[in-house]
């Protein structure tokens, strides 16, 4: 394969359309799996909502990518969420029972804490409290969940459901399945960091899509800027489609989905 020619082709709209179609095809396959949730093994079905949500995110990215000159930054922001959802789903299929339990407990305690919350800025406070609030001590599962996600030192909420970094979760996936880590690594390497900059509203995150920080790039040439945007868009769609497929492969290791 002529990689130089392939790299140049990634700067054109026709290739972007192909990759958009690729993502939507993978999305449709995953959606068919989602509809078969009741026939899947316990782990695959318990957190199937992550796959359903991933389909929604992928569809939104595909739609926004039709106008990358306007919405590429938003595509990256959504891609960050998509990557985490798919990695989490795959990780939860192969992690140990304690870690899987933490994922469920996180949701239980979070839904309870949302009933009484506040934000303080200086001397100003904004709060919302539902009434009545259930007694958490009356429900052993809720009590245990709150305890597990409360810091013993500060008494404050522990906001992260796992202490495992994305890279650690990917490593767990490769060690407990037939999947290779390269596709996961490509998404983290080529998308996640830039997407995080976009989420946090940095100057870089709001402007990298035009290729302005690439060496020897003529940012005054609108043709070159457009090619750069198309390349970023094509690579984004391609990587996300490949990542979607990893979830399908992992589910197929544990379930018979040949009829999809």
Q: How far apart are the termini?
A: 31 Å
State the order of secondary-structure elements, H for helix, E for strand. Answer: HHHHHHEEHHHH
Q: Give the tally of structural domains.
A: 2
Residue share in β-strands: under 5%
- State the helical fraction: 55-70%
Query: How is the biggest beta sheet arranged?
Result: 2 strands, antiparallel
Sequence of strands across the biggest β-sheet: 1-2
Number of helices: 10
Shape: globular
Number of strands: 2
Low-confidence stretches: none
Q: State mean pLDDT (0 to 100 scale).
A: 92
Rg (C-alpha, Å) = 21 Å
Structural class: mainly alpha
Question: What does this protein structure show overall?
Answer:
With 260 residues, the chain is mainly α. It folds into two domains: 8-95 and 176-254, no CATH class; 101-148, no CATH class. 63% of the residues lie in helices and 5% in strands. It is built from ten helices and two strands. It has helices spanning 3-9, 13-35, 42-46, 49-64, 68-94, 97-113, 140-148, 166-175, 182-199, 222-254; strands spanning 116-121, 124-129. Strands 1-2 form a two-stranded antiparallel sheet. Helix 2 (13-35) packs antiparallel against helix 4 and helix 4 (49-64) packs antiparallel against helix 5 (68-94). The longest helix has 33 residues, at 222-254. It is globular and about 65 Å long. The two termini are 31 Å apart. The mean pLDDT is 92.
């Amino acid at each position: 394969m002529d990689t130089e020619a392939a790299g140049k082709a990634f700067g054109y709209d026709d290739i972007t359309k192909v990759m958009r179609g690729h993502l939507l095809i993978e999305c449709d396959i995953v959606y068919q799996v989602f509809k078969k949730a009741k026939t899947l093994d316990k782990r695959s079905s318990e957190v199937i909502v992550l796959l359903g949500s991933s389909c929604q995110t992928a569809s939104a990215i595909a739609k926004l990518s039709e106008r990358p000159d306007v919405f590429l930054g938003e595509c990256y922001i959504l891609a960050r969420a998509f990557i985490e959802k798919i990695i989490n789903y795959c990780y939860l299929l192969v992690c140990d029972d304690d870690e899987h339990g933490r994922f469920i407990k996180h949701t239980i305690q979070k839904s309870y804490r949302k009933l009484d919350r506040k934000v303080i800025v200086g001397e100003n406070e904004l709060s919302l409290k539902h009434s009545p609030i259930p007694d958490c001590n009356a429900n052993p599962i809720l009590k245990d969940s709150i305890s597990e996600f409360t810091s013993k030192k500060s008494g404050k909420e522990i906001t992260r459901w796992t202490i495992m970094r994305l890279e650690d979760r990917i490593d767990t996936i490769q060690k407990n399945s037939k999947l290779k880590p390269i596709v996961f690594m490509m998404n983290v390497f080529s998308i996640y960091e830039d997407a995080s900059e976009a989420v946090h509203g940095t100057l870089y995150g709001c402007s990298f899509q035009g290729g302005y920080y690439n060496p020897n790039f003529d940012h005054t040439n609108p043709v070159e800027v457009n090619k750069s945007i198309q390349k970023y868009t094509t690579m984004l769609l391609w990587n996300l489609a490949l990542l979607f497929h990893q979830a399908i492969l992992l589910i197929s290791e544990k379930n018979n989905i040949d009829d999809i």
